[in-house]
Every structure is written in C-alpha cells, then in structure tokens.
Design goal:
This protein is of the alpha/beta class. Helices cover 33% and strands 16% of the residues. It comes from Aquarana catesbeiana (American bullfrog).
Length: 283
C-alpha cells in the first residue's frame, strides 16, 4: 500500500526508516520536514495512495503541519509518522516533548498514539485506510521512542493481514455511486438548460474520471471550464473549452454541473455578480 517515505531521520525514528527500507519502501531523505511533507502529499495526489512523511518529535513534527493542512484541505492521502517522547516520560518534560496527537487532530482526519506495540498494526492500518477512504486526507501516527527498539512476542501482535475482519491492508477504496433517480433528474435538468456548463475540478483528476468526462463532453456537446487543478482531464485545446471566456461563461450559465469541484473562492462561491442569481447547480 505504501511505496514511498520522505523524511529527516534522528532520534527516535532512525530504526523506523531502516525497517521501512528493509520492507521495500523507497526512502527519500530531505533537508526540511515541511518539504518532506509536501513531497509525500504530492505522491498521494498523483497515485491515489498515501506516502509517508517520517519526522522526529517536537520541532520536526511542527514543521510538517503546513503540509498536513494542505493535504487535508486538498483531499490528498498522506501518512505522517512522528517520533515522540518515551511512554513512561509523558508530561514529565521529556526531550522535545509536545502535545503532538492533540495538535495534529486540527490538521488531519485521524490522529492517534498506539497504546502498545501489539496495537501498532491496527493503528497503522486504520491510518492508511482512513487517508484513502471517503474524502481523502492526512493521518498522523505518534510513535513513542521506547516502542522503537522494544521486543514483543509475535503471537501477541494483532496481525491485520491475517484477520478475518481485515483480509488485506488495505482494500481498494469504495466507489460511491449517485442515486439513479437523482442522476435522471440531473439529465433532465441538463436537457432543459439553455446555457449549461460543466466545471471540472481536481476531484475529477484525482478520481481518474477523464475517459467518462471526455465522453460526456463529446457526445453531449457540453461546454466545460477546468479549474487550475482540473486542467488536463479534458484537453485545453478541446473545441468545447470555454477557458478563454471564463467570466462570460460563468455569468451566462443557467445550469452548472460541478465535477470534482467546490464553489469556493476560486469560483467566487457561486454568487452574483459572477453568476446568475437563479443559476442551478448540480454537484
């Protein structure tokens, strides 16, 4: 599931980086944790599977927060693993001690610290799965320093990949389909529209829906407008592209079909005077 790891090694995560490489994960050493986190985020966006950002405690973890927030807001799968103080030194003023789990909850879908060595596989599996399932985003796993070199009886480890509950780590993310009745309503609305417009966002690119969207545009003759991160789903030089007349297309559309896009600041929140007051939105 995870093929790439970016980070800066140091106490207590050196052995984690070594173990990852032994397991076949490609480790890329970086010079700054922020850059490492952005690099891992980019892999998540391009592949649809999370990469890992591995960092040390305290300042190392703090430097990743902008990358975590960026990944979470852009819906890109990402796993951040941070070393932390030993479990028996918590709240005692340990080296670079910081409330890492609590802090990362603001910038992630999932943030946890395994309670024991035996629990690590379950926590990692949940982090990987959560980063991809539903609306993708960043997840954080906190690893106490004393866990890194501890030994545990393998028979006591909760093996995810042999469990009946988790037959594989991880199964492909579920595909959600729209209600057929709602699809029929959308088709009927498109047929009635005088000036329909498709807006293609980065969600369409992330979902690799380019073939279906190109077929929709070509067979129905619908004009389309890509957002900056939606470019390339349908070629910019396509005859139905209205990117060169963006403002006019938005203003005169009486129905807009949003595909993997949000009505945020980039699309003027879908409000007048950029849009018609009575424009219909299908999302």
């Amino acid at each position: 599931n995870v093929k790439y790891m970016f980070g800066i090694v140091g106490v207590p995560v050196i052995e984690i980086a070594i173990a990852a490489q032994v397991a076949g994960i490609k480790y890329v050493g970086m010079r700054n944790e922020q850059a490492a986190c952005y690099a891992a985020s980019a892999v998540g966006y391009l592949t649809g599977r999370p990469a890992v950002c591995l960092v040390v405690s305290g300042p190392g973890l703090i430097n990743t927060l902008s990358g975590m927030a960026n990944s979470n807001m852009n819906c890109w799968p990402l796993i951040v693993i941070g070393g932390s103080s030993d479990s028996n030194q918590e709240t005692m003023g340990a080296f670079q001690e910081f409330p890492q789990v609590e802090t990362c909850r603001l910038y992630s879908k999932f943030s946890a610290r395994p309670s024991s060595l035996e629990a690590i596989p379950i926590v990692i599996e949940k982090a990987v799965r959560t980063s991809m399932y539903g609306r993708p985003g960043s997840c954080y796993v906190d690893i106490p320093g004393d866990f890194v070199n501890k030994l545990v009886d393998s028979s006591e480890v909760r093996q995810v990949n042999t469990s009946e509950r988790y037959p594989a780590c991880c199964l492909p993310r579920p595909i959600s389909l729209a209600d057929p009745l709602e699809v029929q309503k959308a088709v009927a609305a498109l047929k009635k529209a005088q000036n329909p417009l498709i807006i293609i966002g980065k969600g369409a690119a992330f979902s690799q829906a380019e073939n279906n969207i190109r077929r929709l545009v070509n067979e129905c003759g619908l004009p389309f407008l890509p957002t900056p991160m939606g470019k390339g789903v349908v070629p910019d030089d396509h005859p139905f592209s209205v990117a060169a007349a963006r403002s006019s297309a938005l203003l005169h559309a009486d129905l807009i079909l949003l595909l993997g896009a949000r009505l945020n600041w980039m699309l003027h929140f879908g409000l007048p005077p950029r849009f018609q007051p009575d424009v219909k939105i299908i999302q």
